[in-house]
Write a structure and sequence with these properties.
Layout (H helix, E strand, L loop, with lengths): L1 H5 L5 H15 L9 H10 L8 H11 L2 H17 L25 H4 L4
Helix pairs in contact: 3-5
Length: about 120
């Protein structure tokens, strides 16, 4: 798996699918899989910079996320992206992270972004 990903020939969608298969087969997740929900929510919350690509975000999370946080972080970001922080019309009024959100201007993304 690491060999395939290191060759750089997989698209972001291919990478997300491959990680999903590995997680399913191994029943564990060693790295945060950055799909569209994770990428969008991470940018909006200011966890990554506004110009960070999905591949770059994957590298940042891989370097900095402790193994015990990987699965809960991944699931929480996806759930938040699907249920509250929608791509077209985020429900900011329902968001429990509103006061910490760079998207609505509550915080400065330059101060909150994870540097890789």
């Amino acid at each position: 798996m690491t060999y395939l990903l290191s060759r750089g020939r997989l698209t972001t969608a291919d990478r997300a699918f491959a990680y999903g298969v590995v997680v399913h087969l191994e029943e564990r997740q060693v790295e945060v899989c950055v799909d569209t929900h994770v990428w969008r929510v991470s940018k909006r919350l200011g966890l990554i910079g506004p110009k960070v690509s999905a591949d770059q975000a994957h590298e940042v999370f891989a370097k900095l996320t402790p193994p015990e946080w990987v699965y809960p972080l991944h699931v929480s970001l996806i759930r938040h992206g699907r249920q509250v922080c929608h791509a077209q019309r985020p429900e900011c009024g329902r968001c429990t992270l509103y006061s910490e959100c760079a998207f609505v201007g509550s915080v400065n993304p330059q101060e909150t972004a994870i540097s890789g």
